[in-house]
Amino acid sequence: MPFRFRRSVRLGPLRFNFGKSGLSSISLGGPGVSFNIPITRSGAPWTTVGLPGTGLSWSVEHSPEANRLAAERLPAGPAEGLPR
Question: What pTM, to 2 d.p., does this model score?
Answer without folding.
Answer: 0.58
